[in-house]
Structures are given as structure tokens and as C-alpha cells.
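Inputs:
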Amino acid sequence: MTTVPPEVSPLGLTLEAAPHAAAESTATRKKGLGIASWLAIAWLTIMVGSAALADVLPLKDPNAGVAPKRFAPFQSGGPILGADANGRDMLSRTIYGGRISLIIAVCSILVGLFIGGFLGLLAGYFRNWLGNILVGLFDILLAIPQLVLALSLVSVLKGDPNIPEGFHLPIILVLIIALGLVSIPILARITRASTLSWSQRDFVTAARAQGAGHGRILFREVLPNVAPAMFSITLLGMAIAIVAEGGLAILGVSVEPPQSTWGTMIATGKSELDGAPFILWIPIAAVFLTAVSLNYLGDVIRDRFDVRESAL
Amino acid sequence: MRVIGRRIIQLVVVFVVVTFFTVLLISLVPGKPEIVVIPFDNPQHTQRAAFRKENNLDRPLVIQWEKWAGKFVKGDFGNYYQSTGTDPVAKRIKSSAPVSALLILYTQVFSLAVAIPVAIWAAYKSGSRLDKLLNATAFAFISLPAFAVALILGYFLGVKYNLLPTSGYVRITDNPVEHFKTMVIPVLSLSLGQIAVYMRLLRSDLVSTLQEDFILMAKAKGISNRRVLWRHALRPSSLTLLTVAGLSIGTLIGGTLVVEVLLGIPGMGYLIGQAVLARQYVALQSSVALIAIVFVLLNFLIDYLYTVLDPRIRERT
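Outputs:
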């Protein structure tokens, strides 16, 4: 809700930051991506790759009991990551669950990115009544805590699956719509803030002087410069969406069996804390490692982008 | 004064739109809401008919909202429908809301109490190995969801070493010692992420403040490092911290709901979780509206506090 208007002095800011930033930018460029970035990229590649190829990979049926119940992981003669309370293969469940978790996270953030990004561009570029109305809209969407908004949307849109009356959307779609809607104002505000500073640069004035229309300036001049900030927040948003799905699952509004996500694995596994906690640790580790990788890469991109902006 | 007037108008608009949305929620339920909310009615369907009438479902949305808002401001939050009969939602909220509020209060106090000294320490040693270690730890904690911490702590402190209860809640008036014991795991679960956010923010803020001339001046006057850090450097950063503490309440509310369900703490999250499972949309509606109103009010107050505390902003607006 707090919007301290950014100081409208891009030039002054640039001059101040220049010497320090220039030194830093050459340093980071020489260094390349650190080992942590590569680890994050590797983990995400493995997750996305295994999720995409889950049907082709030699995996056990994630919904069939294939091993003794609560079979501990890393022991010979059984599934490598163990088996859950129903004897289902944990590795296979983690990959198939990750598939739905990732689909939900990626699609919902894409919804947020396209709608929120577009509205944010407009709000940052048109600093008149249109911009004001849009900012008011973002504030209203942000007035309900994110998870509460998503929870209420999912729980009403889901309705009661046992009562066939009325039109039921597939639950995955409901989750994507709800989380997408929640991410719109977040992505919009970041895009707006970035657009605000870029659309006052000299090259935008130059383009306008050459007779470029609003559309051309927005998409050809401003958008390419705003894109790194949007990409960075997209990665952070995906991490938030994965965690949010976990929260929704614990609150009881995620996908229903036979489908599962990392969130529902945690929600159903929480009763195993006494005897076989590894059933919980595996999906928790998957959520954590994915979130930390996305957050880290988002941060790396943001750092580089900031450096580039101030070194200009 | 004019600024405050405009802010209050904004506040009213936000209230109207947000509560309108919560009223709209019931109409979004696929099929007939009365069947979903009351799956087992008597043969005459009197409960369902009463439900439609109570919530004015046969009237236009605007009238629904008007009637709902009229009841809401009087403290009538609708009914909770069960096969054993109906009871008012207000009664449930009255016992749940203080629990969540207390949990959030403890979390904020604890998070700030830990984050401020750690951030000062990290800023003082900025660039050192310690600073980098603290920063990396904070980064990991930001990515670790509260529900994961709750489960991990529940396992180690509760199941394995049996030090603390892993679920349940005791009121402070009943038994203060047990009360704090039941709050340790939930508060820690919610705090780790908050501490990390506050610490990273305050640290970077302090590092830039420490390069200011007035800090050099203070040092030159021979003021001790401790005093320079805690008095001269911390003060300008406190406003940033205040804003973030306010904004993070939204995340904290979400986290609280999940942690409450996980640890069986009878707060708003538990109430909403049960309402969602039992498809009690009236209870959901009222709880969401209440949470949103409190959240908006808190942010409004912080905004106001901000202008009071910082003369520069007061001048500008």
C-alpha cells in the first residue's frame, strides 16, 4: 500500500552510482555465473526434465502399491527413495507430483506475467487517469492477503465435486486461475515501477520526437529494457506459487487423488511424522530446493540488471 | 489534512470493493450454493430455504451486499450450518481471531528482536566471512516455507526429543507457561522467514547509512561503535523496517493460516480450513472480509505513522 514515489532523477542517480557500478559490472562479467547459479540451473533442469519425460522414464506407477508400506529410502531391494504409507514409489510420486506443481506454478505466473505485465506497462507509461485507475486496481487486489484470496477463490470455484450440478472447472485450472489472479498485481507493480523510470529516458523522448506511436514506444523501446526485471520477478513468482500451492494443499484445497502435487504429498504425509517422516522430507526437500533455485536465479538476474541499468 | 481525507476516501473504496468481492464469492459456487453448503437437509428443505433467504440469494448482488454489510457492521457474521443445527459464525470468530492475532504479534516481536541485532552485526562486519554466511543463511530461510519449518521443528522438538507439544493451544489466562510452550513451534516457524527478510533489508540499508558523513562525524567525535550503530545508524533505517514489517503482515497472515492448520491451533486459519472442508461459504466470506479489513487498516495506519515519523514525506505530500 505504501508507495513512496520514486525520485524522478534518473540522471542524477546514474551519475552517483556510475564509478562504483562500473567497477562492479566488469567484475561480475568476468566472473560469469557462479557455481551456485549452475547448481540452481542443474536442479531446475532435472526437475523440469523429469517432469516432462515422466511418462517415458522407467518409473513405477505413482498410484500403485509396489513396495512394503513405509519402506525406508536408500535400502537395497526396494524403491530408491522408499515408499509411502500405501507402498507407493516415492521417487515416482515426487516426479509426477512435481509435474503438476510445476504446471500450476508456470501457468499461473504466465497468466500474471501477461495480464499483470501488460497492465503494469500501461500504468507506468501513461501517467494520467489511466495509470491512476490501474494503480488503484492493483491496490485493491493487494488488499486481501495473497494466500487468503487464492484460498477463497479456489474453495468456491471448486465447489463440491460430489454434487454434479453446475459447471465444474478442472481443479488444476481453478488453481491456475486463482494463483494467476493473485500474481497479477505483484507483477504489475514491479513492471510499473521499472517502466516509470525507463519511459523517462532520453531515447524514449527521441523515439517520440521521431513520431513513434505509443504502441511502438511501449513495445519496442520500453519493453526490452523492462524485460529483465519482469523475468527476475517471474522466477521469484514461480517460487512463491509453488510454496502457495503447498499451503493451499495443507488447507485442503488442492488437486484430488489420483492426481497429486508436492503440496498434497506434504498434506497427506503429515500424519507420518511419528513413524516415517521421510515421506514428508522428500516433498519438502523438492519444494525447498526448487524455491531456493528459483529465488537465487531471480536474484542473480536482478543484480545483473541493476548493475547494467546504473552503468549505462 | 487534505491528504488524510483523500486516503480515507481510498480506504472506503477499498473496503467496498473487497467486501463486494467476498459477497460475490457465494454466487461463484458451481451449482446451487444452498445444496453445497447444506448437503443433508430435512425432507422439506427448510434449512436450504432459510439459507437462501438469510443471504438474500434471490435478490440482486447490490442488495445482497447492502444487507450483508448492514449485518456485518453490527457483528452478525452469518451462520455456520451443520447437520446438528446452525450456530453463528461470529461466536467462532470471536474465539479464533485473538489466537491468530497473538500468534502474529509474537512473531513480529520475536522476528524484529532477532533481526535487528543480527543485521547490525552483519552490517558492522560487512564483507566479512560472517556477513556472507549470515546472508546465505537468510537466503535459505526465505525459500523455506513456514509449513516446512513447522513440520521440521515439530519432528525434532516434538516427536524425537519430546520437548514441546506439537499441536494444540492453551490460553494465556489458563496457564501462561503452557501457553508459551504451545506457541514456540508456531512462532519459530513463522519467524524464520520474517527474520531473514528483515535482516537482509536492514543490513543493506545500514551498510549504505554507515558510509554517510554524519556517521564519520559521530565516529570522529569519539562516540563508541556500539552507540554509533544503535543510535545514529539504526534510526534512519527504522522507517524502511516499519514499512516492510507492515507489508509482510499479508504474507504472515497467509503463513499463519497454514501453520495453524498444521499444528492444530484454533485460530482463524483453523476456522477457515474447517469452513473450506465443510464448504461453509458464509463463514469463509465473513472471515476473509474481516482479515482483509484488518489488513487494509493496518497498512493505512502504518502509512500514516510513516508520514508522522518522517518529516521529509510530510513535506512532500
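Remarks. Chain A has one domain: 33-58+75-311. The two ends of chain A are 31 Å apart (CA to CA).
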